[in-house]
Write a structure and sequence with these properties.
The protein contains seven helices and two strands; from the N terminus they run αββαααααα. It is mainly alpha-helical and 156 residues long. The chain has a single domain, classed as FAD/NAD(P)-binding domain (3-Layer(bba) Sandwich), CATH 3.50.50.60. Strands 1-2 form a two-stranded antiparallel ribbon. The longest helix has 30 residues, at 82-111.
Length: 156
């Protein structure tokens, strides 16, 4: 194994030499969060909704979070409106991102032939439709919904 790391520093080689197997890693399923914010602290990306890598969408979801949250924060005029922006972000983003956490876990089970058995036709059918909702998302609609929620909160 160490021959694969020629040119790497001695410290790195030393650490890698301690590994017994390099083809096994732990994947954890984070329980759903009740909220992504508390007061003036707000989480996004993996800090809010870490998922397994099986749908290849975790980093993309973090970028989506930043897009929605950044636009909402750009709408507010005063510091006392920050929590309203966080709440609107939470309300529109949490359902989608929690769906990813669950869907990615299920897709891992599909890859491991636990969900649809070892029937290649059934596995292919499942894979063909599982991620469409991730890639065919209307961000303009989502942002408009979040802005509407922010506006409603400002009037309360």
């Amino acid at each position: 194994m160490l021959k694969d790391f020629e040119g790497w520093g001695d410290s790195v080689k030393s650490i890698l030499s301690l590994m017994k197997t390099t083809d096994i890693w732990a994947l954890f399923k984070h329980p759903p969060c009740e909220t992504y914010f508390k007061g003036r602290a707000c989480l996004l990306g993996d800090a809010a909704h870490a998922s397994t890598p099986h749908m290849g969408a975790g980093a993309g979801m973090a970028i989506e979070d930043a897009y929605i949250l950044g636009n909402l924060l750009g709408e507010i005029q005063h510091a006392n409106e920050i929590e309203n922006a966080f709440r609107a972000y939470d309300l529109v983003r949490r359902p989608r991102t929690q769906r990813l956490v669950e869907g990615s876990s299920q897709q891992g089970r599909l890859y491991d032939l636990e969900l649809a058995g070892d029937d290649p036709v059934q596995v292919a059918k499942e894979l063909a439709t599982r991620t469409r909702w991730v890639w065919e998302h209307d961000f303009t609609r989502e942002l408009n919904e979040a802005k509407k929620l922010l506006s409603l909160q400002a009037r309360l």
